[in-house]
Amino acid sequence: MDYLTSLASTLQFPQLSGVLGRVAGVLLEPLPGSGERFCVALVAETSDHKFDASIAVNPRIARALVGNDLTSSLFNFGQLAAADFKVTAQKNGTSKNWVPPFSGMFLTEWREVQGVDISDLLNQASLIFSTLAHTNTITPPPLMYGPQPSAGEEDLFRQGVRSIVAGKNSRLDQFFEKELSVSGAGQATFRIDYLSPAVTACFTAINPATPPKYLLGRAQAALWKIATARDATLFRPEAARLITWLPEPGLPIYSERDYGVAKEVEEELRYEAKKMNIDVVAKYQASQAADYLVNLEQEIIS
């Protein structure tokens, strides 16, 4: 027995390593008030205050369950929520007071977990909170561009504005479609429609034929991009604008009800934008929006 005791005392067993932390899911309710929610992002904080987040939507699985259009929305909102968490938590040094950046988003209760590293915590979170994230290898996907919606009024409006602006002032063309990387706990990368030393802007379109929930969702994502670009860049642009297309009054393809819907969406956008110190500028034509942007640049520079 003495020999066994002596032998046991000389054996060196490897110490178990790992991290303690907590995880939560970010839920999106596409149709407000319906109660139907999808987990679009996963967030994690370790006990020593390291942060990470990932998208919780596997496009292949989501398409089979909810179709292409909703998959695009879920993926892109998950991307933006994950990026916002990483930037905000790192800036504040804690995730305690973080809330999802868009209306219609909800944070689950936090769950205490233990894993090999923070990535493993996110792996466990995917099993706890998300059906749409499950893959053969449960490694969360990195922040990247997901499936994009088909071209519509928004894309035509943006392209039209860029073409006209380039014709009026070719120097400004370089500021369209800029990729921006925001460092935090890791790095979040997204594309913003327009970013110059003077102006940060996104373009959207309010088409009454599109369900308001999708109009507001896309516009809220644009507002987040504008605010993040403004606050994350060293030169901090003076002007932050959401430039939106509205249908001209009196078009025969739209009813009075359609115009009422467009007005309600516009008012809601202005309300949300005001909280973020962003101005909403509504124009009927791409040429009007282009003139506005060129003049705004000139006013600020001069």
Bin the helical content: 40-55%
Poorly predicted regions: 7-16, 135-151
- Count every helix, treating DSSP H or I runs of 4 or more residues as helices: 8
Q: How would a textbook summarize the main sheet?
A: 5 strands, antiparallel
DSSP strand (E) fraction?
Answer: 15-25%
According to DSSP, the number of beta strands is: 10
Structural classification: alpha+beta
Shape: globular
Radius of gyration: 23 Å
Query: Mean pLDDT, nearest integer?
Result: 80
**What is the straight-line distance between the termini?**
90 Å
Task: Return the string of H and E elements.
Answer: HEEEHHEEHHEEEHEHEH
Describe the structure.
- There is one protein chain.
- With 302 residues, the protein is an alpha+beta fold.
- The chain is built from eight helices and ten strands.
- Helix 2 (59-66) crosses helix 3 (68-92) and helix 5 packs across helix 8.
Relevant terms:
single chain; alpha+beta; five-stranded antiparallel beta sheet; five-stranded mixed beta sheet; 10 strands; 42% helix
Brief sketch in words of this structure:
42% of the residues lie in helices and 23% in strands. By secondary structure, the chain is α+β, with helices and mostly antiparallel strands.
List the helices and strands and how they pair.
Layout: H1 2-10, E1 19-28, E2 38-46, E3 51-55, H2 59-66, H3 68-92, E4 105-107, E5 111-115, H4 118-129, H5 153-168, E6 176-184, E7 186-195, E8 199-205, H6 212-232, E9 239-245, H7 256-275, E10 279-283, H8 286-301
Parallel strand pairs: 8-9, 9-10
Antiparallel strand pairs: 1-2, 1-4, 1-5, 2-3, 6-7, 7-8
Helix pairs in contact: 2-3, 3-6, 5-8, 6-7
